[in-house]
């Protein structure tokens, strides 16, 4: 469904956002895209949407080279891609139903189809009763459900989600995840960028990990951080928002230290599954700071 | 792409209303600028007609010395006959000339008191086949024919008139063009504000795959409507100034012919509306191009 073939992307004046990424995502797969901030997850999604173009390499969506797509055909590509974001991106001056209907209106669907499809999809996300509410009258989880409904109302081939649970508490996140799971089981491919350890670990789906633009792990039924032995120690922990900030100055020195202390084999990786997880690393930093 | 007229109309007018002050400024500037353009065009047509009228009546006036001998007059008559460019001439004898002078100088008793039929120059009023040849023919008569006091042709006064109105028109047009540029910028800015106000909607539209034109057209229609409204106001103002012009020409003898026929007026108004539409579309498409990256 989605294929990256030797994709490189560098933003102007910056270090590479993606380096030589090649991978294949099959129809109907559920893929987690993990990695710290700045690792290239969002760029990965933007490339699929063709909000950005790769400097090198080719990206295929549904068998078509989207780099070769003329710009007036891009909207038609996007009609096959649903999108959900951390910040919901609902229109504050439209009701729930209008927000969802908007996605169909602007692609010129006839009114009677809009009415029935909007009602259907709102039932699917469990908001059938709240269709006339305004977004700011809803909880964060409900707003995200509306966003998912809007992304899915056109029955896209692929649903892209950029940290859809980033603003939500764990319980609400679970609700969103089961919704995405349900959508995935209708045959829709789901690609979700996330920091949420608990979710990745409990879903046990394919995990693609990026680190500073490089593909460091592609695991069929993976967890957020490490392989299984590490998984037991981190599972159930909530995602740590500070992790990324700490990671910056924790980096090189801290890695050595942890390696020695923990004693698990890290020999600058032949394979990446053995890399220490971001979470455990940053936790150790936090602990160290606390001890001072 | 399913872009219904109803959708565009709805979007356009909600946008206009949301941004009404900016829109009003743009519309008024368009109106003022186009009024000047329209008035300049009207003025030009009126002057052309006035000039044409003068030119058609008398192309050449040959004044004869007061009390010229009959032989001299006969010679002049012969000369006129011999000149192929002259179509026909009428001679105003001293009596008729004196009467006309009395009429023209009514109220100026002192001037009239020194005039008498014997001291007033008589004149031939001639039509030429081609009024443009007045200067050539005039030169022919003013040189060396006995008894001729002087020869005038309206070319001279027309020239002055043309110069004055030409300068006037130039000033009007320069002001109009300056205002047109500023109305273009105002429309551009109004559309830019509208784009900014709706950036969330636009980003969602892009995300769910609305086509570029679907996103652009309501904004461009907004500019078009602003240009149109401005030009409609200008149409009204041009009508008023035309009314003023005909009021003048009814009362001022010298401008008796300075009216603009309704056909020309309609053409002027159409030009005004077209310019308004062009300004609106140009301003908004520049804004869309510049500030709406789709």
Beta strand % of chain B: 5-15%
Order of strands in the sheet with the most strands of chain A?
6-7-8-3-9-10
Count the DSSP helices of chain B: 10
Mean pLDDT of chain A comes to: 80
Low-confidence stretches of chain B: none
Alpha carbon gap, first and last residue of chain B: 16 Å
Rg of chain B? 30 Å
Question: What is the SS-derived class of chain A?
Answer: alpha/beta
Count of strand segments of chain B: 4
Give the helices and strands of chain A as they follow along the chain: EEEHEEHEHHHEHEHEEHHH
Q: By helix and strand content of chain B, what is the structural category? A: alpha+beta
- The ordered H/E elements of chain B are HHEHEHHEHEHHHH
How would you characterize this protein structure?
The complex is a heterodimer of chains A (292) and B (294). Chain A has 292 residues and is an alpha/beta fold. Chain A has helices at 41-49, 74-78, 96-105, 111-124, 140-152, 170-185, 197-203, 228-234, 243-262, 278-291; strands spanning 2-10, 16-25, 30-34, 56-61, 64-65, 81-85, 158-162, 189-193, 206-211, 214-219. Chain A has a six-stranded mixed β-sheet, with helices on both faces. A four-stranded antiparallel β-sheet of chain A has the order 2-1-4-5, covered by helices on one side. In chain A, helix 5 runs parallel beside helix 6 (170-185) and helix 9 packs across helix 10. Chain B has two domains: 5-54 and 158-291, no CATH class; 60-152, 2-Layer Sandwich (Alpha-Beta Plaits), CATH 3.30.70.3040. Chain B has ten helices and four strands. A four-stranded antiparallel β-sheet of chain B has the order 2-3-1-4. In chain B, helix 2 (20-57) runs antiparallel to helix 7, helix 2 runs antiparallel to helix 10 (262-291) and helix 9 runs antiparallel to helix 10. Chain B is rod-shaped and about 100 Å long. The mean pLDDT of chain B is 82. The chains are: A alpha/beta (292), B alpha+beta (294). At the A-B interface, helix 2 and helix 3 of A face helix 8 and helix 9 of B.
């Amino acid at each position: 469904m989605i294929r990256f073939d030797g994709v490189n992307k560098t933003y102007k004046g910056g270090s590479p956002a993606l380096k030589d990424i090649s991978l294949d995502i099959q129809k109907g797969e559920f893929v987690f895209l993990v990695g710290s901030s700045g690792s290239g997850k969002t760029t990965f999604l933007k490339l699929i949407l063709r909000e950005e173009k790769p400097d090198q390499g080719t990206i295929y969506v549904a068998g078509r080279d989207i780099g070769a797509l003329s710009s007036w055909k891009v909207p038609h590509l996007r009609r096959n891609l649903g999108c959900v974001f951390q910040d919901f991106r609902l229109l504050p001056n439209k009701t729930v139903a209008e927000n969802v209907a908007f996605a169909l209106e602007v692609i010129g669907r006839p009114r009677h189809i809009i009415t029935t499809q909007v009602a259907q999809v709102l039932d699917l996300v469990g908001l059938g009763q709240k269709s006339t509410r305004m977004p700011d009258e809803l909880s964060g989880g409900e707003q995200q459900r509306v966003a998912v409904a809007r992304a899915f109302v056109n029955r896209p081939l692929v649903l892209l989600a950029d940290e859809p649970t980033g603003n939500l508490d764990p319980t609400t996140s679970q609700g969103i995840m089961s919704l995405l799971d349900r959508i995935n089981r209708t045959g829709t491919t789901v690609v979700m960028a996330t920091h949420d350890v608990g979710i990745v670990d409990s879903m046990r789906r394919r995990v693609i990990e990026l680190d500073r633009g490089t593909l460091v792990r592609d695991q069929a039924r993976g967890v957020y951080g490490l392989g299984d032995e590490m998984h037991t120690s981190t599972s159930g922990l909530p995602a740590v928002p500070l992790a990324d900030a700490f990671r910056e100055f924790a980096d090189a020195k801290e890695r050595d230290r942890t390696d020695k202390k923990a004693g698990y084999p890290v020999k600058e990786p032949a394979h990446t599954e053995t890399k220490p997880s971001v979470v455990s690393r940053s936790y150790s930093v936090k602990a160290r700071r606390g001890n001072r | 792409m399913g872009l219904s007229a109803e959708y565009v109309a709805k979007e356009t007018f909600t946008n206009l209303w949301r941004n009404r002050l900016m829109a009003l400024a743009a519309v008024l500037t368009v109106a003022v600028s186009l009024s000047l353009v329209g008035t300049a065009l009207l003025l030009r047509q009126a002057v052309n007609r006035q000039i044409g009228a003068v030119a058609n009546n008398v192309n050449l006036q040959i004044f004869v010395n007061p009390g010229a001998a009959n032989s001299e007059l006969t010679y002049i008559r012969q000369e006129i006959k011999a000149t192929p460019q002259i179509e026909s001439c009428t001679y105003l004898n001293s009596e008729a000339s004196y009467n006309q002078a009395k009429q023209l100088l009514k109220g100026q008793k002192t001037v009239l008191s020194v005039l008498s039929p014997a001291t007033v120059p008589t004149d031939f009023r001639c039509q030429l086949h081609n009024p443009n040849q007045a200067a050539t023919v005039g030169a022919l008569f003013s040189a060396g024919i006995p008894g001729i006091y002087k020869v005038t042709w309206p070319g001279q006064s027309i020239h002055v008139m043309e110069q004055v109105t030409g300068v006037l028109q130039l000033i009007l047009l320069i002001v109009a063009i300056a205002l047109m540029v500023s109305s273009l910028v105002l429309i551009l800015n109004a559309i830019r504000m509208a784009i900014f106000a709706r950036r969330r909607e636009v980003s969602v539209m892009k995300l769910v795959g609305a086509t570029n034109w679907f996103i652009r057209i309501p904004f461009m229609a907004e500019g078009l409507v602003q240009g149109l409204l401005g030009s409609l106001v200008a149409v009204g103002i041009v009508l008023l100034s035309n009314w003023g012009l005909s009021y003048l020409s009814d009362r001022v003898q010298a401008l008796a012919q300075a009216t603009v026929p309704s056909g020309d007026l309609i053409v002027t108004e159409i030009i005004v509306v077209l310019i308004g539409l062009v300004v609106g579309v140009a301003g908004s498409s520049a804004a869309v191009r510049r500030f709406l990256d789709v």
